[in-house]
């Protein structure tokens, strides 16, 4: 940062149109800030600001936070920011391990009868997935044990949804996403395809494996300090979009993994735990495009999307209930 130039200036806003007592006590600090929050023009932002201030100040008072603890928290958040790169989002990882990502997901995607339940996006989604045709592979050969994924994209009433876009990504057989390799040259173990006119889709992949979320950064240190493991059960990510339907971000978790119930980011839901069928048939393997061997795992599961109007109705109903029962800041 260079030397400042010219005269220092304010942001142009005047003093508040009301008097505030000097902040000579903890309670006055909070009440002054809540009054200032009332100046927020946007109603939703005003609501969020007042509640954040109330809960944050209440936490400081309840815990009698020390100056050293405050400094350590600032240093921790600074380290989280410095760890972020275009391919690594440490703040999403922090949100994940604190259960905030799962909570926001659960609130914004309430279960609707018949619809596939959602799961957390996670920090490893990228925009550069290659476009594939049905039957193609998202993984180069040698990236792991063969798996074939197939199903249909349907509406909650059972109607097939043609041409739905499906983004999918996973770890390789070593438990790493492609973005974790320093020599990444192209997307790997990820792809983008579309359901056919009858809503059917299918693609080759590899059996995902359980893996540790990054432990070399501040979030990893946080988990160690809390005495928590950093493992995620094996899973396959899917994100499905179609006009008129709520975007589905989900994942399928093969049964039998020891980390299912204590997933470090709280992403597993019972309905998303799936069974992989063992297929040992060379003719079937070749038919599905696997270049060698006779065995592969088969994951058969439909993806059921919820109409936007229905999702909005359930969300707004739940929001009204929550607002009615929530304390007012």
Report what the structure shows.
By secondary structure, this protein is of the alpha/beta class. It folds into 2 domains: 26-65; 100-311, Aromatic compound dioxygenase (Protocatechuate 3,4-Dioxygenase, subunit A, Sandwich). Helix content is 30%, strand content 18%. A hairpin with a 6-residue loop joins β7 (236-241) and β8 (248-254). It is globular, with a radius of gyration of 24 Å. The two termini are 39 Å apart. The mean pLDDT is 94.
Structural class: alpha/beta
CATH architecture of the largest domain: Sandwich
Order of helices and strands: HHHHHEEEEEHEEEEEHEEH
The proportion of strand residues reads: 15-25%
CATH class of the largest domain: Mainly Beta
Keywords: Dioxygenase, Iron, Metal-binding, Oxidoreductase
Family: Belongs to the intradiol ring-cleavage dioxygenase family.
Cofactor: Fe(3+)
Region (Disordered): 1-20
Descriptors for this entry?
18% strand, Intradiol ring-cleavage dioxygenases domain-containing protein, 5-stranded mixed β-sheet, globular, Protocatechuate 3,4-Dioxygenase, subunit A, alpha/beta, 30% helix, 329 residues, 2 domains
SSE topology sketch:
Elements: H1 26-37, H2 43-63, H3 67-83, H4 90-97, H5 100-108, E1 146-155, E2 165-169, E3 190-194, E4 200-206, E5 211-212, H6 218-226, E6 231-232, E7 236-241, E8 248-254, E9 273-274, E10 277-280, H7 282-287, E11 295-300, E12 303-305, H8 308-325
Parallel strand pairs: 1-11, 1-12, 8-9
Antiparallel strand pairs: 1-4, 2-3, 2-7, 5-6, 7-8, 10-11
